User: Fold these one by one.
Assistant:
Number 1:
Amino acid sequence: MSEPPFAVGVFDSGVGGLTVLKQLMVQIPSVSTVYLGDTARVPYGTKSADTVIRYAIACARLLIERGVQLLVVACNTASAFALDHLKKTLSIPVIGVIEPGARAAVSATQNGIIGIIGTAGTIRSGAYQDAIHAFRPSAEIISRPCPLFVPLAEEGWIDGEIPRAIAKTYLDDFKDAGVDTLVLGCTHYPLLKSVIESVMGKTVALIDSAEAVTQVVSEILTDRLPVRKRDAARHRYLVTDAPDSFREISERFLGHAIDEVDWVDVA
Ligand code: DGL
């Protein structure tokens, strides 16, 4: 099958990066994409930096072989651990979610107290913390992993008593610390936005890294890369395991059904 002449590659550990893809489709509808979900090796959030870097290299190589000309690392954990390596070693532009999210957080905060939530790996890496401090050294940051948000989002338990009780347990300290801005530093968390907002209150700015990264992609496309017509846009989906369950769950993340998901081997 022939590949589109230009496409943005998006990769994630699994289905979560579809939150980023969705933003790309909405904000840059003319752009073709190839999405790779590394469903055979998800989750990345609990793994070591070395392992995540190895996985990320394999995913990036596969997408480059498929002809993508710009790579979006939708996975926060992969962005946190592997972005520098990918940027140094790949010949195409590579964009991660951390820096755009950090920049958005710094412009949103009024009181300089910023919360970060993400996977254990993302929080442990200190990548968001460093990026925020690079933009605003005086920022006060509190952070913690919220691992249960991932299965809640995948199961579609995104409102009601149980997600709210879990969110409250995770987020009460952030409220007590007076954060006015909270970075949703994981692909899955935007699905729980309304529960998170109900706990944090409407005055706390919730930073969706998916929106922030799309803005950066949009700027790069305008400046450097050709943009095709909207009706020429094609979207391909590749996974390293279980295409059928990816297809089933993807609707929740993408908001619409997808027809074809192909299995690929990145090992
Ligand atoms: N995609 C991952 C992230 O954004 C969450 C799921 C995982 O742990 O792989 O960090």
Number 2:
Amino acid sequence: MTEKKRIAVLVSGGGTNLQALIDAEKSGIIKSGTISLVLSSSKDAYALTRASDAGIKTLVVEKSLHPDRDEYSAAIKDALIEAKIDLVILAGFMYILTPSLISAFENRIINVHPALIPSFCGDGYYGLHVHEAALSYGVKVTGATVHFVSAVTDGGPVILQKAVEIHEDDTPKTLQRRVMEQAEWKILPLAAELFCAGRLRIEGRIVRILEETDTQSI
Ligand code: GAR
């Protein structure tokens, strides 16, 4: 059997997507990788409690202590290299990584975004703002996207997407919750497993999902 890939999850807040990943590893949805590190930009992130409760190593790299963006990304890069990480998952991580970090982990960083990219994405679109934008635009369907991270914010190749209906009486908060429940918490663990099992092949902007080989399914 091949060794499990080492996953680092980068968080800044509540960590419900981290919880979905932890639960997916426990239930066997993620079977080709293991969460080896949870790195938080804030010592107060509830995601850290979720990680400790699951017995996962945590590390705080405080954004406030590294005001310089390049220096902040360099500190994260060092921690990821030190922990021998194969896959970096941005799960509600609120800082844009520098090209130097992205190229050190080229095609090995994935992000979950709470909209159907290329809608409602890019600089300034994060957290509740994304849902506010979708509601004020008046779209009837939104969703979530998991994509590879490139130097363009939310611009890397799309791995998985799932659509979610908007209701007439939605507020940004009710919509955020439905997008998480119906889309993010499902497609993020799935994408992590596909990556760890070696089933993603990037061809330019297109990500091909390969069939599970006989060897992998044994
Ligand atoms: C999630 O909805 C995630 O998609 C979003 O932040 C939330 C974090 O929640 N990320 C972005 O907006 C990135 N552009 P969580 O901490 O409970 O997982």
